[in-house]
Amino acid sequence: MGKYLLKRCLMIVPMLLGISFILFIVMHVAPGDPASIRYGLNPEISGEARDDFNRMFDLDKPVLEQYVLWMKRFVLFDFGGSLIDGRPVKEKIAERIPATLLLQFTSLVIIFLIAVPVGVISAVRKGGGFDRTATLLMFIGYAMPTFWLALILILFFGVDLRWFPISGMTPWYAEYLGGAARLRDLVWHMVLPVTATAFGSLASLSRYTRASVIEVMREPYILAARAKGLSENRVIFVHALRNALLPVITVMGLTLPALVSGSFIFESIFAWPGMGRLGYEAIMNYDYPVIMGVGVLSTFLTLVGIFLADILYAVADPRIRFGRRD
């Protein structure tokens, strides 16, 4: 187990390097010029000034040489400075990442707390009214584009009913609020972004949970448990659910990349001051250092999420011993 975990940790490094290289190449072959974005059509900026800008940020060098220079800084945890305002990329990311982690962690917890019970109840009451209603809602969740859902939430609950704020994380008057009032205001701002972020993953995870529980309930040891006279709740929640959670944990590990990539969309729609919105703004401004910083960190969080899923997989089923053939 220890060797397996060490091997998985070491595998993160080449995967991170490979993805960073692909991201760097894709970013530089895309049409656009950072100097033009920075200075626009300002006639007072001469061609020499634009050349100086390119030399200052090594943009006049071949792409592969730029990547090597970026990698040298990266191994020292230096992401460079923004092409737009010159601020260190680390500083800009450090300001935004707490908001992203708060939104994604909350969404992940809500997905798990809702999807697993819905999947279990649907499996136990297979073919019943709850199962059919949940199936219908989940298929709607599959089919509905989440960005469209986000806009509908803003229009209905934010603009028409005025129940929830439609943008931002905290209002301008937040510094005048007390601790409890500030927390309540933060939760109120999170309702719509969390709902939009979690809805799509709810559908897939609850369906996987339902299918997994139905399959486990057919196993011989479940029949044996029932034959012993155990209550149905004990059979389901003690004997069946633990094994049924194994594929669910795998799906949860794959849900994290979707949440991280989705943060670019949802944080932009809800003006949430997180890392995803920072990455979106950087892409629009051809701010290469910020794009690389956000991209590499998002990739790292994704790989860490998959790694944690592997650990939970082994914890949920002690029969699993990674690296052993017997």
Please explain how this structure is put together:
This protein is mainly α. Helices cover 75% and strands 0% of the residues. The protein has twelve helices and no strands. Helix 6 (129-143) packs across helix 8 and helix 9 (220-227) crosses helix 10 (232-269). The longest helix has 38 residues, at 179-216. It is globular, with a radius of gyration of 24 Å.
Question: What labels describe this entry?
Answer:
326 residues; mainly alpha
Tell me briefly what this model is.
The protein contains twelve helices and no strands. It has helices spanning 2-29, 34-39, 47-56, 63-74, 89-124, 129-143, 146-160, 179-216, 220-227, 232-269, 275-284, 288-316.
**Rough outline:** globular
Structure classification: mainly alpha
Helix fraction bin = over 70%
Q: In DSSP terms, counting alpha (H) and pi (I) runs of 4 or more, how many helices?
A: 12
Task: Give the topology, please.
Elements lengths: L1 H28 L4 H6 L7 H10 L6 H12 L14 H36 L4 H15 L2 H15 L18 H38 L3 H8 L4 H38 L5 H10 L3 H29 L10
